Amino acid sequence: MFKTVLFPIDQSREAREAADVVTNVVQKYGTRLVLLSVVEEPPADSPSADPMVSPEVVAKLLESAQTLFSQQGIKAEILERQGKPAFTICDVADEIGADLIIMGCRGLGLTEEGATDSVTTRVINLSPCPVLIVP
Fold first, then answer.
1. pLDDT tens figures, 6-23
2. Pseudo-torsion of CA 56, 59, 61, 67, nearest 10°?
3. Where are the extended beta strands (E) located within 9-130?
4. Of 6, 43, 57, 114, whose CB has the highest number of CB atoms within 10 Å?
């Protein structure tokens, strides 16, 4: 059913919680797993304290996630890209032929103000494949 699953990760609690669902899906369907983390471009007018703008932090995050899945007997490929997270996630999903994107949700898109800023909402609207959201 699912040949390739894309799991975009960041340092959020929601991404860590979604890892359990990813493990279950990948083991059940014998799926290829691709981990993606996006190095965000900081706004030009302000230096960002967000760790997701550091390529070094993102590389460590991907290695840790790969190790975590390896301990579950799952071989995971890793990709690091730079750009705006929602657009990059959808571009990579298209590029690798993903059948499913699994991602955590912070719930920011549940309000009118948050809907325009939510990476999850943007991915749902732009994705070339189904998206499984783990609350």
1. 999 998 899 999 999 999
2. -140
3. 32-39, 76-82, 100-104
4. 6
